[in-house]
Design brief:
By secondary structure, the chain is mainly alpha-helical. The chain folds into two domains: 205 residues, 3-Layer(aba) Sandwich (Rossmann fold), CATH 3.40.50; 110 residues, Tyrosyl-Transfer RNA Synthetase. The protein has a three-stranded parallel sheet with strand order 1-2-3. The chain has a two-stranded parallel ribbon with strand order 4-5. It is globular. Bound molecules: adenosine monophosphate and tryptophan.
Length: 340
Amino acid sequence: MPASKAKKNRILTGIQPSGDMQLGNYLGAVKNWAKNQDIQTNFIPVVDLHTITVKQDPQELKKQTFSLVAMLFACGIDPEKSTVFIQSHIQAHTVLAWILSCTTPIGWLERMIQYKEKSHNQERVSAGLLTYPILMAADILIYDADEVPVGEDQKQHVELTRDIAERFNNLYGETFVLPKAIMPEVGAKLMGLDNPLIKMSKSHAHVRGHAIRMLDDSKEIERSIKRAVTDSYNEIRFSNDKERAGVNNLLGIYQVITGKTVKEVEDDFKDARGYGDLKSRVAGVVISEVEPVQKRYYDLLNDPAELRRLIQKGDNSAKQYAEPKLADVLKKIGLDRDGN
Ligand code: AMP
Ligand code: TRP
């Protein structure tokens, strides 16, 4: 194994430029990648090619892509330490995806839960919806990623990526690292404010009162938290009881942001006057966490030249890994340009 691989864990995760980033994505994922960027190598592609498996408005797609890149940097991802880039700018991904689609049995794709759900009851299903996980496999394998942080719904796709890699390695010799899916720790999972039994999610971010979106202003954040579902126990403590999931979630959000222990958090609320007080204090810490991120986001978005420069930098650094890897694959299958 080359020395560079033994040194730092290589983490890769793709984020779709669709929907608004919400507090769960930030606290459960992006903030940790930023925290760990000195001890691990982060590759973060904005996966615009995955987003077009569902019809998109071209202008909107472009806007969302730029906006997501700006948000990632605003969340503390450092362009000097991590590689943030745009998937469609690195054509090696799509070439590798084609090659892998030639070694992947259709049956493996047809049993993907997400494919079954998304194609169910659809009159016309695009080939892209079926082959989507192969592109995801290419995203991961082309960088020799060791770990892939994902939500539960993407775990099966990472397992499929391992199968795809293993099959290619068996057919053509050792080529790809077998990646592992990693999930957020249980305590770090934010639940919906409107329904604390389901995960706070980007795909429900448009539902009023469900999520705290990273770009919500302080009034909106206060309003969403004030409306959050609680219970009638009027007791401020952590609990696994389903009925108390709302209060538990609010305390969890407070805990992840402040970094305090369970006891410290409960102590902080000893003098609280009911759930109204709990909610305003939670809103207070959320707002002070989110405001500086928003400021950095708008500063960057108002400087498109700088944003383009950072994207170019990320693209260039991604290419330095992806292109030699693709060249190796092409050679192994006899598609290189060497005459002998
Ligand atoms: P998703 O938006 O579901 O594609 O998730 C992108 C990343 O954010 C994954 O690493 C998820 O584990 C993380 N994430 C998404 N929603 C939450 C949440 N409610 N709480 C904690 N982490 C989350
Ligand atoms: N399929 C993932 C999703 O829908 C996004 C994605 C694309 C991804 N390529 C990836 C995630 C590579 C992790 C690694 O959320």
